[in-house]
Design a protein that fits this description.
This protein has helices spanning about 5-20, 25-50. By secondary structure, the chain is mainly α. The relative contact order is 0.08.
Length: about 55
């Protein structure tokens, strides 16, 4: 099993690099990242809560 942090680095870092190369506007990019991270950690918390329940 691949640790989440390694998987995040393998997927998230190239996406950030591509967004920079494509000159993605800063504010929309930050909003997308914040929403995606919030969703990711919400699903992670729900999964942990379901396992512990």
């Amino acid at each position: 099993m691949v640790p989440c942090t390694l998987l995040d680095a393998l997927i998230g870092d190239p996406i950030t690099l591509i967004a920079g190369v494509m000159r993605t506007p800063f504010l929309p990019f930050i909003l997308i990242v914040v929403v995606a991270k919030a969703a990711r950690y919400s699903f992670l918390a729900l999964g942990v809560a379901a396992v512990l329940a």
